[in-house]
Amino acid sequence: MPEKRFERLRELYEGDSPRAHRFRYWLLAFDLVTILFVIATSFTRHGPWIEAVDVLFGVVILTDFAARIVLAERRLRFLILPVTLADIVSIISFLAPLAGEGLGFLRVVRTLRLLHTYQLLDRLRADFPFFRRNEDVILATINLIVFMFVMTGLVYATQYRTNAQIANYADALYFTVTALTTTGFGDITLTGTTGRMISVMVMIFGVTLFLRLAQVMFRPPKVRQTCEHCGLRLHDPDAIHCKHCGAVIRIETEGLS
Fold first, then answer.
1. Is the pLDDT of residue 184 over 60?
2. CATH number of the domain at 134-219, please?
3. Cα separation of 3 and 12, whole Å?
4. More confident residue, 79 or 215
5. Alpha helices by DSSP H, the chain
6. Does this chain's domain 1-127 share its CATH topology with 134-219?
7. Residue 257: what pLDDT?
8. Is the pLDDT confidence value at 256 over 60?
9. Which of 240, 215, 245 is nearest to 228 (CA)?
10. For residues 118-141, b (16+ Cβ closer than 10 Å) or e, as one string?
11. What is the pLDDT of residues 119-160, one digit of tens each?
């Protein structure tokens, strides 16, 4: 790749210019659209227009994936990261209509792509005061939602052909929420050993993430300001000294209303 084109690509993915920020927000919006598309099309028969959109999404994801490989300093390590493997599966699954519907169910793995949004944290802190004030709650909520949709996708992918109670994504989501909250109405159950193991995963990991969200929501409010001496990141909003080492800290404020 010519040096000038490589630097332009790096600037888009890693730069700090307004154009780079807009580009990364566009990627985030694209991720959300693909997830909504996967959910919506679970209620319909996969006709030619859905296959065409699948291919379009697959090409965009493949282009983004190729760019990340080019920019990666340690490409072998990059290729074995969980989010990278999720992207590979997503590319294959979105392009599956080219080879038939055999891999179509793998499209649910695209939900994991939300984890890529964590690279936008610095920009979100700078652009949105609400995010800056509630970062821990927002991230804990995102973790729970991502897990919920990943498990819903897994339930749908493994059950919708063999379990008459799972006819679409809404049925799978309903089961996931009732299992996660341990409500357990019993009107939808997963079949086979695989289904039981999925139920166990939803209950154990889902409840853990739910408790983490509750812990973050109800603990005393803190501000994120890293102490230069000891590295402690969370402090009281009116703190002048670090509680861990006693060093002076300077917390930026937006003034009183």
1. yes
2. 1.10.287.70
3. 14
4. 79
5. 3-14, 18-41, 48-71, 75-79, 82-94, 121-127, 129-133, 135-159, 169-180, 192-218
6. no
7. 43
8. no
9. 245
10. eebeebbeeeeeebbbbbbebbbe
11. 667 777 777 878 777 777 887 888 788 788 778 888 887 888
Q: How many angstroms separate the CA atoms of 2 and 7, rounded? A: 9
Q: What is the mean pLDDT of residues 169-178?
A: 88
Could you give the CA distance from residue 68 to residue 161 in angstroms, rounded to a whole number?
Answer: 35
Residue 99 DSSP class? T
Choose among 63, 151, 45, 154: nearest CA to 101. Answer: 45
CA angle 154, 94, 1 (to 5 degrees): 125
Q: Are 76 and 119 in contact (CB under 8 A)?
A: no
Give domain limits for the chain: 1-127, 134-219, 222-257
- Looking at residue 63, its pLDDT comes to 92
Q: CATH for 1-127, among 1.10.760, 1.10.10, 1.20.120, 1.10.3470?
A: 1.20.120
C-alpha 102: how far from chain center? 25
Backbone angles phi and psi of 150, in degrees to 5: -65, -45
Given a cut of 60, whether residue 32 has pLDDT beyond it is yes
